[in-house]
Amino acid sequence: MEMAIGINHSIKPTFCLNPITTRSFNSTSPFLKTQSFARSVCLNKKPLFNGCFRKTPGFNSIKCSVSEVADTDTAAADAAAAATERRSKLMRRSDIRNIAIVAHVDHGKTTLVDSMLKQAKVFRDNQVVQERIMDSNDLERERGITILSKNTSITYKDTKINIIDTPGHSDFGGEVERVLNMVEGVLLVVDSVEGPMPQTRFVLKKALEFGLAVVVVVNKIDRTSARPEFVVNSTFELFIELNASDEQCDFQVIYASGIKGKAGLVPDNLAEDLGPLFETIIRCIPGPHIDKDGALQMLATNTEYEEHKGRIAIGRLHAGVLTRGMEVRVCTPDDACRFSKVSELFVYEKFYRVPVESVEAGDICAVCGIDDIQIGETIADKNFGKPLPAIRVEEPTVKMAFSINTSPFVGREGKYVTSRNLRDRLYREIERNLAMKVEDGETADTFLVSGRGTLHITILIENMRRENYEFMVGPPKVINKRVNDKLLEPYEIASVEVPETHMGSVVELLGKRRGQMLDMQGLGSEGTTLLKYKIPTRGLLGLRNAILTASRGTAILNTIFDSYGPWAGDISTRDQGSLVAFENGTTTSYALFSAQERGQLFISPGAEVYKGMIVGIHQRPGDLALNVCKKKAATNVRSNKEVTVVLDTHLEYSLDDCIEYIQEDELVEVTPQSIRMLKNPKMGKKSR
């Protein structure tokens, strides 16, 4: 394996771990020259390394290929000596690497993990393994996205590599923030065409704040329109924007094709396997910094539940040794403590949890026996235990009201329908989902659920629906702030990939939603344009379907929270009203034939409806009440021929579509088998 190194004259190069063939930045490769020039702009006259660094307060930088500067001034030497004295009992484990794989949605994280697992011989050669093996949740496989962070491990050259696969969607950013406490480095996966996207910025910002080592993986390098030079330079600019240190800016780049299982140090010369990636992880990600002989400390970063084992706490052991049957102290961040006992202990080996008798500091483990353990609590030594710093996550920006089902069809399909059932389930959710908040509403049967975005809350709704809950939800609302008597609202950065032929209609739509264009650029040779907007979160509500309609289903919208800003004014998110059922009954073809002239319908003949239920979209502003259950009058007058009724195909809205559609005076009724929309009976009518 070879690594590029630029050496300042005041540096004495030495090599660590295994000998490495070096290559200067003065290579004949124009790509490496461009990369070297970009980095020299950032680092100016300071030493330039193409190694890997980790800069944590109180710790020296960890370099993977170059030693420290030999000549240091007296003050720096004194500070280093004092720091060394304070860390006299600390050491690094060289046999373990803890990494998280982070990226924007659909940049190939989970597929890359698949290839890493297969090449590490986690599975038998003749074993049938499904794609995206880490996406084990049914909802994840249906939607094609990662929702929950998951742990696994592989072994490479006698070194255990603990891998954490994280979500790529910005709404699940809390999962990423949680697991960064367990790792010393991250693999930042970036698409070879799209480059850094909104979630790339978010996860990189968090990694830099934690002082983690970063290895950039330019994935999907085999795409015909790949532009690796642009992607690396854009990533470097992102490091600069996020105020990364000189050492952090000097990241190692690996080019890979996750689906083919290949990686290399240059984009046009990949190895036949992921060996270069594994070697880079060993060399550039430091081992965990531990206090082996200190008092036991383990931060519970994640929890799972199994019927036979109960609640399982997952986290990295920071200090000491944890053994099965050990009595421990469980400490909360506010120094409240209680005592418990570890009944079972597991570590991650390959794709499974393996029971062990003891775990040393630095490894990631799973602990059973502490039934009331919560995320953020510390499992500590019984006599000298102290809590570790609490996990901090970003505040939610969107809220929705959950209430019991009050429709005429209540109890037909669901098992849990009471406010007590609903309350218990929602408060159980926030034990694991740190980025979500639940508050009691104005009435005893209403609860306010706050999350990072509409999708964040929609996933909770879908999970509850599959658990046989029945309830109603109101429209999403943004969480505003008032600072110095000024009303502030959340703004997000929206990135839209759209073909040039539909760019005009998309730009017009974003302008109506109070969006401000930040950037516009072409993407490769595919005739696609990337638009970047700063837009109020209110303007994003209901935007996804509108953009798909304007672009004939070809646009891709990605958003991430940016900051709070001044109130942008009124925003109209829907111009059309709703068609509302006039009475209870069963729909007929005869009634729907006349109703479809008033707009687009959501229902088909033979469907049961009730008064106040939304049955379609009105073609004009304002709501219109319709009788969709009317039957053809039976008379004794003979007709020459029975008229054939031809109905238009009705719209089928998913849960996400319904939540985007409803407005202030409307609700979504959620049951295990059905999703219906209705007018809120507690609010005034807005009919024509």
TrEMBL record:
Signal peptide position in this chain? none
Q: Start and end of every Tr-type G domain?
A: 94-289
Output this protein's name: Elongation factor family protein
Organism superkingdom: Eukaryota
Please name the InterPro entries in this protein's record.
BipA (IPR006298), BipA_C (IPR048876), BipA_GTP-bd_dom (IPR047041), BipA_II (IPR047042), BipA_III (IPR047043), BipA_V (IPR035651), EFG_III/V (IPR035647), EFG_V-like (IPR000640)
Asked whether the UniProt record includes Protein biosynthesis among its keywords, one would answer yes
UniProtKB keywords? Elongation factor, Protein biosynthesis
Concerning PROSITE patterns, the annotation shows:
G_TR_1 (PS00301), G_TR_2 (PS51722)
Q: What is the lineage of its organism?
A: Eukaryota, Viridiplantae, Streptophyta, Embryophyta, Tracheophyta
Entries under SMART domains matching the protein:
EFG_C (SM00838)
GO MF, one annotated term: translation elongation factor activity
In terms of SUPFAM superfamilies, this protein maps to: EF-G C-terminal domain-like, P-loop containing nucleoside triphosphate hydrolases, Translation proteins
Q: A Pfam family matched by this chain, by name?
A: GTP_EFTU_D2
